[in-house]
Amino acid sequence: MRGGRARVVLLAAAISALTTHAWPQVSLESAVKATYLYKFAPFVDWPAKPGAPAAFNICVIGTDPFGPVLDRLVAGQRVADRPIVVRRLAQAQRDAPCQIAFVAGSRGQDVKAALLALRGAPVLTVTDGAMDPGVIDFAVVGGRVRFRVDDEAAAENGLTVSSKLLSLAISVRPRKGGARP
User: Fold this and answer.
1) Euclidean distance between CA atoms 28 and 151, whole angstroms
2) If phi over 0 gives left and psi between -120 and 50 gives alpha, with beta otherwise, what is residue 72?
3) Is the model's pLDDT at 24 over the cut of 60?
């Protein structure tokens, strides 16, 4: 089964994180999405950047559906020996030190504006069923949290999404010309 092992690892990590903590005030769906946010990181390559921040930053832009759940999930977690830090921003800023940006909003215009602000920046944008999706867009299919990947948008942001993560997506928009680094 293609990507079966990676799917099992991601699912097991999500379930493990959820069953070891109590998450009042946040739905199981939101908790699973929060888990995915930091679990995406090992499956993405960012361009080398001089003066990169010491921490690996996950930014929540706009309305925060996770509350303290995301902070609890990433506590003590690391990406390439860098501690994960959650930042909350009212609006997207191209120069904000975000490696992953979850873009939420009560209106589609908020999401679209944030994605435009981050276009071309080395940021993995993640949306939640948006009309204008980010590099990764969550979808609930058959009661399960799944995701779509826009590999062309990843390329525009200088990112490389691993084939393992692409194989787990319910759909992938390929890079132009199909060329992958």
Assistant:
1) 28
2) alpha
3) no
Q: How far apart are CA 125 and CA 118, in angstroms?
A: 8
User: How far is residue 57's CA from residue 81's CA, in Å, rounded to a whole number?
Assistant: 13
Q: Three-state SS across the chain?
A: CCCHHHHHHHHHHHHHHHHCCCCCCCCHHHHHHHHHHHHCHHHEECCCCCCCCCCEEEEEECCCCCCHHHHHHHCCCEECCEEEEEEEECCCCCCCCCCEEEECCCCHHHHHHHHHHHCCCCCEEEEECCCCCCCEEEEEECCEEEEEEEHHHHHHCCCEECHHHHHHCCEEECCHHHCCC
The tens digit of pLDDT for each residue in 27-43 reads 899 999 999 999 999 99
Which CATH number is associated with domain 4-178? 3.40.50
Measured distance CA(62)–CA(144) in Å, rounded: 24
List the chain domain ranges.
4-178
The residue with tokens 């435009």 is 116
The pLDDT value given to residue 106: 59
Of the candidates 56, 65, 84, the one whose C-alpha atom is nearest the C-alpha of residue 130 is: 65
pLDDT digits (tens, 9 = 90+) for 108-148: 668 899 999 999 999 999 999 878 899 999 999 999 999 99
